[in-house]
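Form 7-S
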Amino acid sequence: MFTDGEKRFLKANELCRMATVSEDGSPHLVPVCYIFKDDAFYIVSDPETMKVKNLRRDGRVALLVDHYKPNRAVLVFGMAELINRGEVFREVSQDFFKRYSWARRDKWDEGEVALIKVLPSRKISWGFRKVQRS
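Output:
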């Protein structure tokens, strides 16, 4: 789904904006750190946050990874899955601990946080060779 240039861009960045659908249908938008791995995005969150509550009810999500100078962005639409135990949880948690100092300072165990896995179904990007839509 992603070009090589988009993959490099997504792996090089740490912050994205994540939109979920609130109970009243309005968007809920927050900045989050992420891991991009195997064409999926992983975000860790406290289980009681609004984004996690929204995703329990409606798994639709949009993510925007952008950089202003030079102007590049990847906008992703997809479905989220909540993971709080298991091999994927442990493996991705280790990726967070390696990459982010805030995660190393406050490590978590299985069941303590919600790991959000976003599986993209569509994307739009700009600032690369040409506009990419899929």
